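Researcher: Sequence of Helix-turn-helix transcriptional regulator follows. Predict its structure.
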Amino acid sequence: MANGTEFTAHCRAQMQAVQDTQDVIGGKWKIKILTILYFGKTHFMELQRRVQGIGSKMLSQELRDLEMNGLVKRTVCDTRPITVEYELTPYGCTLKNIIGDMEKWGRKHRQKLIDDEKEGK
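Model: Prediction complete. Tokens:
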């Protein structure tokens, strides 16, 4: 019985950690935003152009959430007109391996689907 209890406690802890991660980076847009920011500082309008389908209100909200969680830094530039730049914080860079693994898996999965289609599966 102790083995089952240990497994249950470990499973619960693991599920909580995964849920915490999903709460911070889950949803339709956040991973896309973070991926773009890995390539460097980006202005708000450029982010909106690169994240196809996102509206300015949703982008603002997602960036606020990412900033609140310490993943993204917002800088108001002293320009005319005023522009705002976003970049990853050092803490935000700690997600690079997770996003890299997602990218690798996504490429393999896409290739699998293409191969399955060619084979008539």
